[in-house]
Amino acid sequence: MIPRYSRPEMVAVWSPESRFRIWFEIEAHACDAMAELGVIPRENAEAVWKAKDATFDVARIDEIEAVTRHDVIAFLTHLGEIVGQEEARFVHQGMTSSDVLDTCLNVQLTRAADILLEDLDRVLAALKRRAFEHKETVRIGRSHGIHAEPTTMGLTFARFYAEIDRGRRRLEAARADIATGAISGAVGTFANIDPAVEAHVCAQMGLAPEPISTQVVPRDRHAAFFATLGVIASSVENIATEIRHMQRTEVLEGEEFFSQGQKGSSAMPHKRNPVLSENLTGLARLVRSAVIPAMENVALWHERDISHSSVERVIAPDATVTLDFALHRLAGVVDKLVIYPERMLENLHRFRGLVMSQRVLLALTQAGVSREDAYAMVQRNAMKVWEDGRDFKTELLADPDVVQALGKEAIEEKFDLDYHLKHVDTIFERVFGASSI
């Protein structure tokens, strides 16, 4: 991912230096385990750790790979240059390249997941704070983009909180699923390496042994991981889309914070655009673009091919770096989002009580009017509001059929906004827990 959409901590997970450091730790821990089993001399295993504080020369490894055309062999050659060829002669014994590559990739993915979980916590904290701040800030709810019935801005933030919280739990599960390693040798039979080596390496690297690997860790694990990132990205876009709609000039119920000196347009000085939310929409598309290739990586030939390799070299860093940036940005957008309660009420009343139509409909059916007749009675008055700009309550009070069925006092009561807020506490308790209310 380009630096513009990258944050240093996540970028570091995928740097060549980090990758080679993890490769070294895998090889060194494997040597320790083999020495414990008596397969290699203890002094050789200890000698490998001379590289513990070494800085691996990325340029030198690239130089060797230009000849060998094999990245793991290039690394092992460079490791031998550091610790001594004789001392390093037992390194990688009984192992295959995928033992190193797949175990390393899963270490990187778990570390990336840990960063993303922290990002999600920041988003959740911002959403929760804004939900309680605007718990009773009334706004119009919309379906199909059209005014429906009253809700609150707090409920909008609360539903986004619940969605992101589900995403966090999915990521925790995906992290656990991806946290496996394999040191099982060619085609995964352990013919030339003891399973105890795998157990030791995985324990040292914070992974669980893969129950059955071929020559690779099964790619359904990775597919599930990237699918989870895709779902979280879609939730980011869901929130961003709501903000973009709120900031439309015709709506203007909220807007992104506009800082001192910020410019909205090179041509039109009056502009204040939802550029961060639009950016989040685009970033979500990038993250989701990793999902289908990850799914297609599941089907490999026999015990192993490398059709997945080129895909993962791109999607693993790009998807995690992009989502990390997006979540960090989203937390800031939510935290600083400017809300306009007065405009929300203005919009709610724009169609002069029309949004109370369901209450009148239900009251008529409860008063003994058939649903079909009740619907017709309410709709004919509602259409006068749509088409002629009339006041809904005034029209109902002038309709003898409605007045005969309900009475004027009951019609007046149907326009009480508080009716729509009576279960807000119940919803908040479901989302945030009783102790938060």
What is the topological layout?
Layout: H1 8-13, H2 16-36, H3 42-48, H4 58-68, H5 71-83, H6 97-133, E1 138-143, E2 146-152, H7 153-178, E3 180-181, H8 195-205, E4 208-209, H9 220-247, E5 254-255, H10 275-288, H11 291-296, H12 307-336, E6 338-339, H13 341-348, H14 357-366, H15 371-388, H16 392-397, H17 400-406, H18 408-413, H19 424-432
Parallel strand pairs: 3-4
Antiparallel strand pairs: 1-2, 5-6
The termini sit apart by 42 Å
User: What is the radius of gyration computed over CA atoms, rounded to a whole number of angstroms?
Assistant: 30 Å
Give the helix tally. Answer: 19
Number of strands: 6
The residue ranges in which pLDDT falls below 50 over 5 or more consecutive positions are none
Lateral arrangement of strands in the main beta sheet: 1-2
Q: How much helicity do the residues have?
A: 55-70%
Mean pLDDT: 95
The computed structural class is: mainly alpha
Q: What is the 3D form?
A: elongated
Q: Largest sheet, described in full? A: 2 strands, antiparallel
State the order of secondary-structure elements, H for helix, E for strand.
Answer: HHHHHHEEHEHEHEHHHEHHHHHHH
Strand content: under 5%
Please describe what this structure looks like:
The chain is 63% helix and 5% strand. The protein is elongated, with a radius of gyration of 30 Å. The longest helix is centred in the first third of the chain and has 37 residues, at 97-133. α2 crosses α6 (97-133), α2 (16-36) packs across α8 (195-205) and α7 (153-178) runs antiparallel to α9 (220-247). It has helices at residues 8-13, 16-36, 42-48, 58-68, 71-83, 97-133, 153-178, 195-205, 220-247, 275-288, 291-296, 307-336, 341-348, 357-366, 371-388, 392-397, 400-406, 408-413, 424-432, and strands spanning 138-143, 146-152, 180-181, 208-209, 254-255, 338-339.
